[in-house]
Amino acid sequence: MSPASITAIIVTYNSQAVIGPCVEALEAQGVATLVVDNASRDQTRTIARDKGATVLASETNLGFGVANNRGAEAATTDWLLFINPDAMVQDHAIERFLEAVETYPHAGLFGPRIYEEDGSYFFQPRSILSTYLKSKHSGKIVPSGDACVPALSGACMLIRRELFHTLGGFDPNIFLFFEDDDLCRRVVDQGYPILYVHEAVVIHLRGKSSTPNLKTAFLMRACQAWSRAYISRKYGLAYRPATILLVNGVKYLVALVTLNAKRRARYGGTWAGTWRGMLGQPSPR
Question: Which of 34, 102, 126, 171 has the maximal Cβ count within 10 Å?
Fold first, then answer.
């Protein structure tokens, strides 16, 4: 295997501040980049093309999962690397991934060691969908080397294209949030291990994939709340929407009285997404 066997798929939405370094880092390690742009209104597409990426432009916001699925359909390589635009592969990360693929050929999904912008180490020990872990301590030991894990962060994950298509790709009903948890659960349900690759390092500038504003903050919270309701139904998880509506409704009213616009966007978004999810309506977008 070589880096040429991998296509990096990057979904963007007003990501001009971060897409350049993301594409540059991948191209420098020999990985072709395919940007699926969700109707950005800034210079994301131009910057991506200038850095060497192929750009699939959508005139509507398809959401994270559907846009990634579109990229996967366009890719022809054996492997797909789904990576956020605010994530940057570090030196030799792709080489370490390729070594892991050779060493652990039965694994279905591979993820890197992730560091945040401030240098802190991010490790996702489990998922709300890793219900097969019976002990409350399961998955909470931070590995010091390669290890099988119950779930990976969607900020960066490597998967065989054939397996991804066999699984049906990302759930197209999910606009944003928990689509990575859902994919991990389906990989495990098919009997494939999920592998954490300790020496493949990625820096993730969390929350900088798009330009922040109050409208975006509301939408992000609404999508997260809706997706929580959706996957709870899909997998039969315990879920109490009435409690969520009550708590966030009170917090929203407090934010309204105190003129706190940021809190109003957060709690209002959570309330709206929970309400739509409880009624079985489509995800906000």
Answer: 34
**227 with 239: CB under 8 angstroms?**
no
Distance (Å, rounded) from C-alpha 51 to C-alpha 25? Answer: 10
DSSP per residue, 215-284: HHHHHHHHHHHHHHHHHHHHHT----HHHHHHHHHHHHHHHHHTT-HHHHHHHHHHHHHHHHHHHTPPPP
What are 160-217's pLDDT values in tens digits?
999 999 999 999 999 999 999 999 999 999 999 999 999 999 999 976 556 668 988 9
Q: Is 44 helix (H, G, I), strand (E, B) or coil?
A: helix
**Crossing angle (nearest 10°) for helices 241-257 and 261-279:** 150
Residue 207, pLDDT score: 66
With a cut of 70, list the residues of the chain below it in pLDDT: 134-141, 207-212
